[in-house]
Specification:
Largest sheet: 2 strands, antiparallel
Number of strands: 2
Strand order of the largest sheet: 1-2
Structural class: mainly alpha
Length: 151
């Protein structure tokens, strides 16, 4: 509860159209105020509602942070897989190139194993395409990570 004490003072001019009693006297009115909170439960409920809203905003912030971290980790693992696949394709191309050189020498001296030579060339082409795909994917994932982190 709250209490208040006050004094109200009003200046009054003389009236010319009528002549009431105490005409032109100033007015002094003492005031006493008492307020009692009748709806205390609604005040408590509003306070609790605001507390819960603040807590909900905290959870939303945490959820957004977790989502960003999860996306970055996913993109990082995609990047690592792409790098590994790129290195694997490079090593396979080196191995197949040495095999191709051996078969090419055999074909140029004996005119044999042409089909095997073409199969090896097809595999080299397949791994070169894989190199391009993994290189593209690596750059794409790097762009996605930069896009998430540069805000």
């Amino acid at each position: 509860p709250s209490f208040g004490l006050g004094l109200d003072y009003s200046l009054v001019n003389n009236r010319t159209d009528a002549n009431p009693a105490f005409n032109g006297r100033d007015i002094l009115v003492p005031k006493l105020m008492l307020t009692l909170p009748i709806y205390r439960k609604s005040y408590s409920a509003k306070k609790q509602e605001e507390t819960l809203k603040i807590e909900a905003y905290g959870f939303q912030k945490e959820q957004l942070t977790n989502l960003l971290l999860r996306n970055i980790q996913t993109f990082k693992s995609e990047y690592d897989v792409s790098v590994i696949r790129y290195e694997l394709a490079q090593s396979q191309i080196k191995r197949l190139n040495s095999t191709y050189d051996i078969l090419l020498i055999d074909y140029s001296t004996k005119a044999q194993r042409f089909n095997e030579l073409m199969q090896i060339q097809n595999e080299i082409n397949k791994y070169e395409i894989e190199l391009l795909k993994t290189s593209f994917n690596t750059h794409l994932v790097k762009f996605k990570i930069e896009q998430l982190t540069n805000f």
